[in-house]
Amino acid sequence: MKTSLRLLIGLLALTVLAAACTGDDEGETTMPGFYPGETATTAAAATTTMAGTPGGLPATGEDGGESAGGDTDSQAIIAVLQTGRSIIYTANLTVEVDDVIAAGEQALTAVQGLGGALYGQETTSGPEARSVLTIKVPPENFAEALRRLAGIGRLVSQSVFTDDVTERVVDLDSQIATAETSVERLRALLAAATGMEDIVSLERELMQRETDLELLRGQLRTLEDQVALATIVLSLAEPYPEPAVELVGTAYRGHDDGAGCPGGVKLAIDEGEPFTACYEVKSTGDTPLGVIDLYDSGLDAQLEDLILVAGDLDIPLPPGGHLIFAFEPEADPDRWSDPWVQATALDPNGNPLWLTEVTNVERAELQVARDDSLPGFVDVLQGAWHALQKLGGIIVVVGAAVLPFLWIPALAIAVWWWLRRRRPATAGAPAPEPPAPPIDERMDS
Q1: What was the pLDDT predicted at 238?
Q2: Taking the model in full, what pTM does it have?
Q3: Measuring CA to CA, which of 181, 220, 308, 311 is 20 to 30 A from 226?
Q4: Strands 57-60 and 66-72
Q5: Which residue spans within 328-387 are E strands per DSSP?
């Protein structure tokens, strides 16, 4: 009888096990996808949910990382939640907008209908205006919130992260249950204790256990809060101004107030021959330029020496605009063209941003043939005048260097003169003769 009963129980257990295995194989359900015509498949006994939706959110496995099976979408997220998994969703978005203040208000309006709320905001103004918003939404609206926020402006970057914390939640639940049982046991022992030493020891141990229990409960609440609301960090940034200015130098023979500008990139002329140097300033950035300063150190030409051929210096130079200047010197083999330009970048309201220098320079190549003929009368006069100028400059430089030390020889002369005045008046007279001996001594001799 006992043997028959054992056989009956064994057959019943095998039947139940076979039914369970069959149910696992057939327990697959199909859900409609987030986009029309798509489906997301969820295995009833599986711990990972994946959907083959291109361009969606990364699928999540047991380790919280991205699955190799492809991407998922918001409907797949709902499928994951329906399996009982505890998953934390976070995302970082960077969106370029024209006005960070207005875009921030638009972002809040976009997520309010999805149950979203603002949990933090940091905004900076100025040339690099930026606003960072921390927004939380229910996980089932996570994908839709990302789509709406990305549509506020031009999406620069987007990253989505998932973290499956199911095992951590289960572990914390187990630790909390164990800690609660231990606390209740200690409370019962404390209630039954009679000795003072036992009471003190139990109270100390109970306080430690209760502290550990509250820490575990706090960790669990933190995880539950992170699972309950997906976090989106939205960074709004205005386009960063990038001013740029280019300078093209050319030259040609003769003086005509710059009518022939621009000239050629190469010019071969003789010493003393008149020529015109042309400078074309181009604004190649995305901001207007103001207070333009152009100079040519090689030809010793300042902005006030130049002739404005095209453009207007009284208005900002817009992006894509250009100015043309001309300078009319005479050829000198010891001088060459070396122009430079700098300008102040302006914001859309005309306020100065910062000083920008030329980013690209194309210089005219001058080839001046030196004049080796005999100098004329005018050349001699010019040479003498230049020599006098150089001599005068040398005298000025030497005088400026010596002037601070002139008090030293002056002081020495004054001391010498004072010592000379202090000498006795008889210092230069001959020595006096010795007195004559007395008369008695002379008679004796």
Answers
A1: 84
A2: 0.44
A3: 181
A4: antiparallel
A5: 339-346, 352-357, 360-362, 365-369
Task: Write down the residue that tokens 């959110």 correspond to.
Answer: 57
The strand pair at 266-270 and 275-283 is best described as: unpaired
DSSP string, 291-306: EEEEEETTTTB-GGGS
> Which residue type sits at 424?
P
pLDDT < 50 stretches in the chain: 1-82, 425-427, 445
Topology at the third CATH level for domain 86-183+217-240:
Alpha-Beta Plaits (3.30.70)
3-state secondary structure 68-112: EEEEECHHHHHHHHHCCCCEEEEEEEEEECCCHHHHHHHHHHHHH
The CA-CA-CA angle for residues 80, 81, 85, to 5°, reads: 80
Domain with CATH 2.60.40 in the chain: 245-369
Residue 233's nearest CA partner among 337, 114, 95, 364 is 95
Place of tokens 């008369």: 439
Tell me, what's the pLDDT at 310?
Answer: 93
Q: How many residues does the chain have?
A: 445
Contact 195, 104 (CB under 8 A): no
Residue type, 35: Y
Largest Cα separation within the chain, whole Å, is: 189
CA 261 to chain centre: 41
Q: Which CATH number fits domain 245-369: 2.60.40, 3.40.30, 3.30.60, 1.20.120?
A: 2.60.40
> Which residues in 104-177 belong to E strands, given as ranges?
117-124, 130-137, 154-164
Separation of alpha carbons 122 and 105, rounded Å: 13
Q: What is the pLDDT of residue 208?
A: 92
Angle, in degrees to the nearest 10, between helices 142-150 and 74-82: 160
Q: Are 23 and 127 in contact (CB under 8 A)?
A: no
Ranges in the chain annotated CATH 3.30.70? 86-183+217-240
**Residue written as tokens 């208005």?**
315
pLDDT at 439: 54
pLDDT at position 54, please?
Answer: 31
From CA 217, how far away is CA 219, in angstroms rounded? 5
Structure tokens at 43: 């295995």
| End-to-end C-alpha distance for the chain, whole angstroms | 187
